[in-house]
Amino acid sequence: xxxxxxxxxxxxxxxxxxxxxxxxxxxxxxxxxxxxxxxxxxxxxxxxxxxxxxxxxxxxxxxxxxxxxxxxxxxxxxxxxxxxxxxxxxxxxxxxxxxxxxxxxxxxxxxxxxxxxxxxxxxxxxxxxxxxxxxxxxxxxxxxxxxxxxxxxxxxxxxxxxxxxxxxxxxxxxxxxxxxxxxxxxxxxxxxxxxxx
Length: 197
Known about the structure:
Layout: H1 12-15, E1 24-27, H2 32-47, E2 54-60, H3 67-81, E3 85-89, H4 99-114, E4 120-122, H5 127-139, E5 153-156, E6 159-162, H6 170-179
Parallel strand pairs: 1-2, 1-4, 2-3, 4-6
Antiparallel strand pairs: 5-6
């Protein structure tokens, strides 16, 4: 493993002060990023048995023909890892901001309802997402406040949203997935340049 390689022990600084949370959740789409984060968190919990219980949350927006297969994939991997999975089917319609923004708003409402007081929701945003967000906001004419980076942590309902991979490039996630022979689904909307995030 190279010095730059990603492994669960490197999450220590991001997770140490979250050990007293009543529960950990991870947003799990089945894609590369969230699959790596789910695996990392479960590896961390194996090495740190006093860590909070972990539950994955999958939201099926029924937007792609393969959405049900993606959900089945998520169910299968969670069973393999021994991580409980909460799945919600929530069809979404495009709003004024577009289908991606509408789907994101629905997901965050579901996440917020799931979190009890003090619980932590982990999302798999990484450095490449951070850069993409900056440039999309710049193209949309955002002011200085709008150009601010995604925070590594912020409040969400009565809990906390945490992004422990925010300083890691996607290439490290890809390397980790290959090293651990992880399987994930590819969402064609991620490469659709007609869709803004």
